[in-house]
Amino acid sequence: MSKEDTTSDIDRRRFIKSTAAIGAAGLFAGCVGSDPDEPGDGSGTFRIATSDEVETFDPRMNQMAWYSTAAHYLFDSLLMMEPDGSGTVPHLADGELEEVDETTFVADIRDDVTFHNGDQLTAEDVAYSLNWVRDPDNDSPNLSNVEFLDEAEATGEFEVTLHLEYQSALMERTLAGMNAAIVPMDVAEEMGQEEFGQNPIGSGPFELANHDPSASVELTANEDYFLGEPALDGLEYRVIPETEVGYVELSTGDIHQSGVTEALLDEAQEDDNIDVYQLDNFDFQGFLVNCLDGPFEDVRAREALQYLVDYDELLVGAVGELGSRNWGHMPQGVIDAWDFPADEWEEQYYPEQDHDRAVELFEEAGLGTDFDVEITSQSGEATTGRATVLQNEFEEVGINATVSEISDGEWLDSLDTGDFDITTYGWGGNDDPDGYYYHMFRDTANDDGGMSDDVVGHSSIGYLYEGARERGDEETLEDLERLDEIVRAARQTTDRDERYEYYVEAVDLLMPLYPVLGVYSAESATGVHTDVQDYEPSPFGEQEAFNQWQEARIDD
C-alpha cells in the first residue's frame, strides 16, 4: 500500500480497535484488580479497569479507543471540550483563536507550560505536532481528522498560525482532541516514533511511571502542571479482559472504576458502594451488506432485509438494555442534539416487520427463497447475538443462513476483498453527523490518492459506489455523486443550519439504497466506587479526573 492510500485503510481498521472498548463499559471500559496502593502526599491512586493493553503511548499513532481518553492525562491540546459537549474552551491556547480570514487562524500559546522533562512548551512544539500528523509520510491514523490543515506555522515564540486547506466545521473539536495532541519536538525527533511510543513525554497532569504489558499502566501526578498539581497521587489502568472480573474488583473496592455488563446492571445499581453512570457511546452498530457481489446486488433484496427484521429484537439480542436505536445511521444522541426528523425517518425507512413483504421483494429481485446467506461475525456477545437473531429471521422465511464467527484479521481482510454477504459492522463516531457520514458514506475513489490496488473499494458502505459503477446504474450513480458531494461539503461548512440541510438530504439519498442494516447505538454502563469524590464521567469528558471543572480525589 502506498503512503497516500493509508488514510482510508486506517480509518477502516480504527473501527475494530474502537469496538474493542465500546460496550465494555464507560469511557474507561474494562476490568482489573490488585491491592490498593498506599496513599502518598495526595489522596491516593485512582484505579481504573481497562480491557486492552496499550500498543503505543504516542497519541499521534494511537488507534485504541480507551487510550484516546486516557492520553489526555499525559498530553495536552490547544483546546478542551466542555463536559456537556456544548463547545470548546482554550487550554494550551491563551484565549480564543483569532480568525484572520476564513482559512487563517492565530493561536496564542500559554507561556507557563512545561513538559514532563522540564522543557518549556513553545509554538515550535505545537506547529511540529500538528504538521507531523498532517504529513502523509508519517502514516498517522489521525491524518484524516486533520486534513483541513495545510500547515501550522510558528509565527512567534508563543504564537502559532494555522493555515487551512478549507474551512472546517470540526476544527475546534479536532484541536481539543488527541488527534491534535502536542508533543515535545526535540524529544520526539531524538527518540524516533517507536521509542517515543514506549517512553512518552507530554505536558499533561500525569506522567507515565510504569508500564507492565498486559497488566497495568501507572501514571503519577505532575506536580508542575500548569493548572496546578492534581489532588490524586496517580492513576492506574489495570488490564483484565473480562468485564465481569473487573466488576468483582470494583464491588470489593480493590479498584475504583470498571465497566458494568447488562447482566450486572441491576446488582450494581443496588450496591450502595457503587455509583452507576449510563453513557452514550456515540457509535453506530449494525450489519454491512455486500452491494457489489452475491445475493444482495439488487436493491430490492437489500430492501427486503428491512422487512425481514424486527429492529427492537435485534437490539435486545445484541446488547439488551445497554443500547438505543439509531436513525439515519446516527445514534440517538446526535438525533437529539441536532433535532433531526427521526419520526419521519422511522415511518419512511424503518418498516414494521413483514415477512410476506420481505419474500415478495426477494422474489422481485430474482432470488425467491432458495438461496444461501453467510453472515460473518466478529467475536463477542453483541456481534454474535445480533447475527444469530438475523439468522433466525432468514430461517423463518425458508432461507438457509449460517453464522460464521471469524477473527479480527479475517474480518478486516474480508472488508478489503469483498468476501462476505452480510457482516457485522460498526463505527465509533461522535456527537456530530460528520463522524458517521463522512467516514462511512463518502466515495473514497475521490480521496487524494484513492484506494490502494489491493483493496476492492469502500467497504464501509458495502461497495455501493463500486457496484453502481460496475452495473452502469446511472440513476443510482447520480444520487451517489450528490451524496459524496454533500458529505464533503458538510465538513467544510461552518454554518450549522446549512450542515443540517446537507445531512437531511444525505439521509434521503442513502436510506433507499439500503447498503447497511442499522441495529443500535451502544450505551456503556460504568461503575464508580463511592470512595471517589468530586468525579462524574461524561461522554464528552477529557482529563475527567482533573480539569478546570472537576478534580477527583480518593476518600477511603
Automatic annotation (TrEMBL):
- Does Transport count among this protein's keywords? yes
* Pfam families for this protein: SBP_bac_5 (PF00496)
Is the Protease keyword given for this protein?
no
Q: Which keywords belong to this entry?
A: Plasmid, Signal, Transport
CDD domains attached to this UniProt entry? PBP2_NikA_DppA_OppA_like
Gene3D superfamilies with a match to the protein in the record = Dipeptide-binding Protein, Domain 3, Periplasmic binding protein-like II
> InterPro entries from the entry?
Peptide/Ni-bd, SBP_5, SBP_5_dom, TAT_signal, TAT_signal_bac_arc
Q: What is this protein called?
A: ABC-type transport system periplasmic substrate-binding protein (Probable substrate dipeptide/oligopeptide)
As one GO molecular function, the record gives: peptide transmembrane transporter activity
State the organism named in the record: Natrialba magadii (strain ATCC 43099 / DSM 3394 / CCM 3739 / CIP 104546 / IAM 13178 / JCM 8861 / NBRC 102185 / NCIMB 2190 / MS3)
Any one GO BP annotation for this protein: peptide transport
PROSITE patterns, alphabetized: PROKAR_LIPOPROTEIN, TAT
